[in-house]
Amino acid sequence: MKNKLFVVMAAVVGAFIIARPLLAHHSFSLYDNEKTITLKGTAAEFNWVNPHVSIVVEVKDEKGGVEKWIVECPPPNTMHRAGWSGTSIKAGDPITVTGNPYKDGRKVMNPKKIILANGESPGLREE
């Protein structure tokens, strides 16, 4: 009986230890929620993969150079329920993304709204 209780307790503690980093991963604290920016550019990549869909957007800077931004979206399952598919965006499509950038200045964004080439703006989560 004592062995069984020990094994169960060890499993519970182990589950909490493993789950802790996973919870931290889903934090939005990396993004500057006080700052909202809009990117208008061209989709270079649309990665329909777990754990998050990502879009690489090429945006022209003030000097005419090209900056690559990574737009980190929700998981594919969440976006699918909101009406997206793995073919919603193609390389070369014009795209407008509004959202919160990383606090540390890296070119990474948490999107709040995406406007596709056809002018549609599907939600990012099921509503």
How would you explain this protein's 3D organization?
It is a single chain. The chain is of the alpha+beta class. The chain is built from two helices and five strands. It has a domain at 37-115: OB fold (Dihydrolipoamide Acetyltransferase, E2P). A five-stranded mixed beta barrel has the order 1-2-3-5-4. The protein starts with a helix and ends in a 12-residue tail after the last strand. The model is unreliable at 19-24 (pLDDT under 50).
Helices and strands in order, then pairings?
Elements: H1 2-25, E1 37-47, E2 54-60, E3 66-72, H2 76-81, E4 94-101, E5 108-115
Parallel strand pairs: 3-5
Antiparallel strand pairs: 1-2, 1-4, 2-3, 4-5
Compute the number of strand runs.
5
Largest β sheet strand count, sense and barrel closure:
5 strands, mixed, barrel
State the name of the first-level CATH class of the domain at 37-115. Answer: Mainly Beta
Low-confidence stretches: 19-24
End-to-end CA span: 49 Å
Radius of gyration: 19 Å
Q: For the residues shown, what is the average pLDDT?
A: 87
Using the coordinates shown, work out and report the CATH topology of the domain at 37-115: OB fold (Dihydrolipoamide Acetyltransferase, E2P)
Q: H/E element string?
A: HEEEHEE
Strand order in the largest sheet: 1-2-3-5-4
Estimated structural class: alpha+beta
CATH 4th-level superfamily of the domain at 37-115: Nucleic acid-binding proteins
Give the DSSP E fraction (strand runs of 2 or more residues). 25-35%
How many helical stretches? 2
Shape, per Cα inertia axes: globular
